[in-house]
């Protein structure tokens, strides 16, 4: 060995001895031919890991350069990157002759490329299959000039992975075709979250290697979604690693493969040769035989027992014939013979005599032979190890577990567990995924089948043992590390309890709000919902319903980061719910320790109509539909993708990159085998649901975007209807087997947004931007009926046009439901009368559909949610909702709320219960604002005391003076009026040039006269003498509209905020600006002084809140979430109102939701998520314990601090 290499080893010796596990490294070194079996045995004989490491290093110092290089490569492969870096600079140069001496035939360059790319080493026992390998290499050479796919397919265990790794172990192939490198990724059976983790890991590895080569390149944060991960991988493969090869090992699912459809060079191994049909680009394939030829199988056995094939006993040929050359069975028997080389007759007899009739699967090996090999393998284990191996019966198929899980199960130290597992791996009784650190272990399906059959009578006790060991280890609470062990327990603890028949303990676990919170935070809500569905027959029906409803309706909140307070979310559940009961107890306990929680005291007056709320896409969702069997929902939107998920839990099943532009609609065919999509790219496509492949495309007839598509409901005569933004020819019928449309409907002169067949396919409904819903006869294409939906929005129709977005028919064909704006309407077809309506979406509704049996209603919206409604509740709901402009009186513990409703009536409600105390008759004109006098004491009678006329346009704000004799109003007509409302006397304050949205009373000293401060969109503040109407001051405050103003408690200062993104503080004595507050990046919409006058809070349209020092104008804190939410805001919308607590320690803010902040730290104390959004104003009781507001869908919230 070169002196430099030897010196480096000696200098690094202590670090190496402390960290390396010699047994892991020696496999690689034996494979490279630099270590013998005897040397390995001598090192393994050392009693401790550290002594084994020391012995390996001592041996290494006596060897040559080749051993140093092999040791270095072993460190790299086993993820000892930090230790390998210690040896890197002293790597000796190798002569061309020496390069060829590597036992696997690769040069040092090949070794380095494959090690960096994570390509597995050649197995210790290896037999070349040159014909197969040459066929793979021939296909790989076709990728030299362009991207494409090479599929290596065959039965499980047929050697596909070894073949793929061996094919790229070629110097000429790498240098000529893949100079960018070879990158290996093991896949297996994954769900979407696991797939994301794999791609994240690959991207990190590629970026890290790129940074080592080019220090100027930077590492990015891990991609947060599959779409982002796919784009990141596309960038890395095309820009940083052009002409590189990506090897995807063990692909099972086409949806997984599509995540790698990024126009690069891919070699994949799989059992399903048809998988590559779902991706684009040139494709070729190589079939791998299920069994080895007799000579190859004998060579494997010979290598295991260290003999020449000709010297093997006759039983060897019989063993190969008995197992039909199965590579896995041959390896199992070979591993056994390596330890007991004189047992040929015994293992042959075992294979021939013992038959397990239950296991016969034509899709895999010869099961009988495998089972016999399994039985023989287990029998050679020590008694202790045999008992441990039997415990593995409890594992689920296709699940990989870390050693830590088995450490809990076996109550052993992790190092001891790893030694046991290594023994199992060496005997081919267990498989190890080396691409994870720590390693993950798993059993083949056939091995699990065998164990389950062998231990059928003891399964319950084995699962009980798992549960008891878990409870003993985690008696203080479940693990929360988020590592593989933690994920295993959260995913499978309920499974083990159910299998162990521990019903009461399963009940206690799944009906615990603590468990729900922790599991939802780590794994998301879909897994929890699936648990409640899977174990529904075991669990109490009523309580299960409470938890399932809570998760179904709040799942989209539980997906948010930072993670919401589950106790606060649960306090919005009905009082009778077990979820609410547990949440209230926890909230009360935490309140004693300073926690802040709000109880929605009037929630009993509101029934939730939604059944499930999910957020399947990033961006607006334009369409969602049930499959005809009701088990699946398809959705699509601005993300350009089509997704299919379970209707019970929201678990994703399929994803297709469907179009080049926004996908506006999706629809199932009657047999659920096809899905149609249409897009802004003017194309209509028909997809095979099972495979996710494109079946048909229509791209010529529609000249504008295609808004909707719908299949007929019966298979008798399959037609597809489409509608578009075309001026005249905007509704078409298609036979999907013909290239052109069959018929066109004429009648709408504006874009048609939606079309839908009646249940018997006799009629087609169309929804248009002209505000109408039309019904057509399918056979003749003639118009049958027309309904003017725009009439339902008479008060808003003057402001903007009403577009009917969509419609759908009930199962009986007697009812049709349609959506316009954010409302949903039900109509009786025969009478053309509205039956009911419902609201819940925060933005425009794009699609509605009944479930096949009519019991559920599906809707999707710009608010990024899909909602499932119970139809019977929608029918019986009162469609009355309140307007957001309200006033509240807090008087000696009593709370009175006054607001207008959507039927133009004035309502007075009890603030304790939400009950209606008084309701006026319908008013002729729209009620824009309300005010309640603080001197009110009697129950409202409904008698009109005065009608004050004078304003020429809408009145925007009104307010009584404290004594109650004077009423002040401001209007769109730019004036303010001061009324002696009992006599009708009026003082008009004129001077603003634009509408006056609000005003405030200004008293500089207790003894001084009260003046009026008003502000307007004209950018000015004006001060008035209310008695004379004289304008005392006229201040041009901002370059943009003045959006808010607040007067300090002592009246000496007032603050203004503006659309010009600034806030200013003014003196009431000098009327000059004393502080200019810059820093907001959007319109500053709200402001509030603290009660001590020392701080000013300002909020903007980006959801950001800033706290300022009033004395010197310095910025104290910025209150905001960690990142923007789904509504692209830091607060779910504009910050519209702010309030300080009396002690100035807490700040309350409203926007898309309500937040309470710690003033000193600028950190959120609590968040309340309303059903709706866009909260306009919140009323706060003097003691800061009660909060009243109304959201944009008219729901009243009376929130009381939990004491």
Automatic annotation (TrEMBL):
What are the GO cellular component annotations? apoptosome
Location of this chain's protein in the cell: Cytoplasm
Question: From the Swiss-Prot or TrEMBL record, what is one GO molecular function term?
Answer: ADP binding
What domain of life is recorded for the organism?
Eukaryota
What main location does UniProt list?
cytoplasm
Where's the CARD domain? 1-90
Gene3D superfamilies for this protein: 1.25.40.370, Death Domain, Fas (1.10.533.10), Helical domain of apoptotic protease-activating factors (1.10.8.430), P-loop containing nucleotide triphosphate hydrolases (3.40.50.300), Winged helix-like DNA-binding domain superfamily/Winged helix DNA-binding domain (1.10.10.10), YVTN repeat-like/Quinoprotein amine dehydrogenase (2.130.10.10)
ATP-binding: present as a keyword of the record? yes
In terms of InterPro entries, this protein maps to: Apaf-1, APAF1_C, Apaf_helical, CARD, DEATH-like_dom_sf, NB-ARC, P-loop_NTPase, WD40/YVTN_repeat-like_dom_sf
Which terms does the UniProt entry file under GO BP? apoptotic signaling pathway; regulation of apoptotic process
Q: Which ranges does the UniProt record give for the WD repeats?
A: 656-697, 745-786, 838-879, 948-989, 989-1034, 1035-1076, 1077-1118
Record's keyword terms, sorted: Apoptosis, ATP-binding, Cytoplasm, Nucleotide-binding, Repeat, WD repeat
The protein depicted here goes by the name Apoptotic protease-activating factor 1
List the taxonomic lineage.
Eukaryota, Metazoa, Chordata, Craniata, Vertebrata
